[in-house]
Automatic annotation (TrEMBL):
The keyword Hydrolase applies. PANTHER family: PROTEIN CBG26694, PROTEIN NYNRIN-LIKE. CDD domains: RNase_HI_RT_Ty3. Keywords: Endonuclease, Hydrolase, Nuclease, Nucleotidyltransferase, RNA-directed DNA polymerase, Transferase. The lineage of its organism: Eukaryota, Sar, Alveolata, Apicomplexa, Conoidasida. InterPro entries: DNA/RNA_pol_sf, Retrovirus_Pol_polyprotein, Rev_trsase/Diguanyl_cyclase, RT_RNaseH. This is Enzymatic polyprotein. The keyword Nucleotidyltransferase applies. One of its GO terms (molecular function) is hydrolase activity. Pfam families: RT_RNaseH. Residues 131-229 form the Reverse transcriptase RNase H-like domain.
Length: 242
């Protein structure tokens, strides 16, 4: 608080004490509940997802994904889970055009059910200085993902989930390139947390030496990006990740 007040003072700002709350046990901030170092989604946001139903048109699909996407940092493998739903929008004009009727399938039903299940008790831990970090990453044929964890009380707890669908070109990459890209993507998305920290990265690809030896092209660019971080890359079978 002392640092905050000094920065406000140096910037020439004043605050209204009657509108301030200091050290509240629970805080609602930007759609999240913060309490005892734990961040949870606002129950209203969780309820909104639980009430989602199968949409008949592309406009409703985009609306559904907008509601769910707000909480994707809390959801493991969000892009992989929602893939059957996002696939409905392939080839559909952008949202500014008229709504297009879509073919909602049983796979979409399963994806929505899984999404609702994952978000019910979701929670993330707020990092502190000195916390030990672990980044677990994985890749499948059509998506990549990862989770940043910290060690608290002898247990590894989630700080932030990251995921992304692969485009058509990326889906044709060899699996070792997808695994390497998963690391790159997660580090860039989590840069605020991991920059200037020692990070243990767990992947199910046994060696990235081939990447560090690359001399040109995208692989060389990836090698340069990895060199900017203090990493200890370890192997674990994919079935044991997350």
């Amino acid at each position: 608080m002392d640092k905050v007040f000094h920065r406000l003072l140096n910037a020439g700002y004043t605050i209204n004490l009657q509108k301030c709350q200091f050290l509240p046990p629970t805080l609602l901030y930007l759609g999240h509940i913060i309490e005892d170092g734990i961040i949870r989604p606002n129950p209203k946001k969780v309820e909104a997802i639980q009430l989602l139903k199968s949409p008949p048109t592309s406009h409703e699909v985009r609306s559904l994904l907008g509601v769910a996407g707000f909480l994707q940092a809390f959801i493991p493998n969000y892009s992989q889970v929602t893939a059957p739903i996002t696939d409905l929008l392939k080839g559909v004009p952008n949202k500014k055009t008229r709504a297009v009727k879509i073919n909602w399938t049983t796979k979409c039903d399963d994806a929505l059910t899984e999404l609702k299940r994952l978000v019910i008790d979701s929670a993330l831990v707020q990092p502190l200085d000195g916390d030990e970090f672990l980044l677990e990453v994985d890749a499948c044929s059509y998506a990549i993902g990862g989770v940043l964890k910290l060690k608290r009380g002898g247990a590894w707890l989630p700080v932030h989930y990251v995921s992304r669908k692969l485009n058509a070109t990326e889906q044709n990459w060899p699996i070792r390139e997808k695994e390497a890209f998963a690391i790159i993507y997660c580090l860039q998305k989590l840069d605020y947390y991991v920059k200037s920290r020692h990070i243990v990265v767990v992947t199910d690809h046994q060696s990235l030496k081939w990447l560090m030896d690359a001399k040109s092209g995208k692989l060389a660019r990836w090698a340069i990006l990895l060199s900017e971080y203090d990493l200890d890359i370890q192997f674990r079978k994919g079935s044991e990740n997350y």
